[in-house]
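User: Fold this; tokens only.

Assistant: Input:
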Amino acid sequence: MRNFIFIIVLTAFSFTAFAQNDRPNAPVFKFTEETHNFGNLKEGAEASYDFMFTNTGKEPLIIQDCKASCGCTTPVWTKAPVLPGQSGKINVKYDTKGRPGSFNKSIFIASNAKSKEKRYEIVITGNVLASGEKDAPSKSTDPKH
């Protein structure tokens, strides 16, 4: 019985591996940038960035869904199929209100694009300065620093 279950599991993994490799014409994401650092942001401001991509595959690329790792991050993406050689974008907004400190947020993309992973990931990072905090850290007059 164990051997039978093992064979079924092994067969299932084999089909999954072949399914990824059997798509030579599959759409492919080619992002200009997969990680964006906003640097220092003032608290209360909304930060926004457009992740631009091109479909370098041979079939239309369709984004089914984009989900952020937290509710303070909102992705909006190209809904129409992106034809081979054409470009699209995923706009990511980060709400800084009440969130001082550094942040690192992931946006997970579910699509029909060829990928080694189950879903594609893009990332935003930065630092939110609390109200009244200066943009750049002040230099210390202490010679030890």
